[in-house]
Amino acid sequence: MAATDMDMAGLQRRLAEFAAARDWERYHTPKNLAAALSVEASELLEIFQWLTPEQSARVMADPETAHRVRDEVADVLAYLLQFCAVLDVDPLTALAAKLERNEVRFPVKGPEERPDPA
Amino acid sequence: MAATDMDMAGLQRRLAEFAAARDWERYHTPKNLAAALSVEASELLEIFQWLTPEQSARVMADPETAHRVRDEVADVLAYLLQFCAVLDVDPLTALAAKLERNEVRFPVKGPEERPDPA
Amino acid sequence: MAATDMDMAGLQRRLAEFAAARDWERYHTPKNLAAALSVEASELLEIFQWLTPEQSARVMADPETAHRVRDEVADVLAYLLQFCAVLDVDPLTALAAKLERNEVRFPVKGPEERPDPA
Amino acid sequence: MAATDMDMAGLQRRLAEFAAARDWERYHTPKNLAAALSVEASELLEIFQWLTPEQSARVMADPETAHRVRDEVADVLAYLLQFCAVLDVDPLTALAAKLERNEVRFPVKGPEERPDPA
Prior knowledge:
The longest helix of chain A has 25 residues, at 63-87. Helices cover 65% and strands 0% of the residues of chain A. Chain A has a single domain (8-98), classed as Helix Hairpins (Orthogonal Bundle). Chain A contains 5 helices and no strands. The first copy, chain A, is an all-alpha fold. The interface between A and B is large, with 70 and 70 residues.
């Protein structure tokens, strides 16, 4: 596997080839991919749903749970990249733009004025 | 902004600095970030929930909806990268590994044996 | 089983007894129950994610899928009722109140002014 | 409002009338309603996503948050009832059947053998 097959654009290409070889493209409407993305994000959350905050910070200590976490992260990223591909959205550019907006929207404050988001 | 600030690792670094400057790190347990990721994925799905498959393919033609789509994609990616950072998971490696497994799990078949996933 | 064990309040009581007998109450914080509710709602959505609108209307024709649908509906309702129990929210009253507000918020219009929500 | 308009069947009838009067039935495919249900469940979770378990137990003390909780509970129940109506599923019967199965699947154990689900 070439180095470029591991970056985001390379993975997006491999996902497209994978779907095309199986004739799965017809299922990949933006709506279906958004649904699948939210389903996979919930499967990631499921791992944590009954854990205390402290337990949730230690999930990678158990090899089986660590594998499950990596597997669900892969699924979330796979559907995010496929969603972005069908709508021609660049996720890195979208995030960079959002970070610029958020710098303005949430200015850094001195500790005394810092609101508790909860 | 340097070119490297736009790749995945660079964005992960900027997200970490953004949270640290606002003292938001204490909210960023793996459990909370997994919840936030699933909430944002649902906000993306919300854009599509009443659309036909055909309408869902045309969402980027409306500038306001296109902006909303990019904004929610950015939020999903932001929480995915922050989740991965706190648990030291590399999302690109996780996806590459999953793709290898899926090549074996879903072999390409001739058209006559191709199952309809629906 | 008495008739009253089948109404909403009766089911809520049986769910509480079920959790108490297994010492699961300590896991049932409002936050955890809200997460579990959203996870189960996604498992229901998963059944439909690759279906066309037409296929989605026929899911109950297949006995196995019909069982899965009923099973996920049960899980969603179970967590909704348990969430409402721990926060002392009456879901029927909440829905009746919302319906009153929505009658005002979305007045019935003549066909010529009816907006397309999509 | 008659007493029977407040029970589950009565609310289901009012929801059906509400949708029919606005010509929204064509949007109410099982797939769309399952998506909307999961979106509303996530909006409920959003209220809790940054809270500690302890803070999550006190949300009803703040009138504005309490209203938001009741409002999202209403939305979840509304879409669950509408989903069940279009597929002719009785949610109370489904839950009663599930409780029967779970009594067998998770037998009550003595404290010494009680597994920690986390």
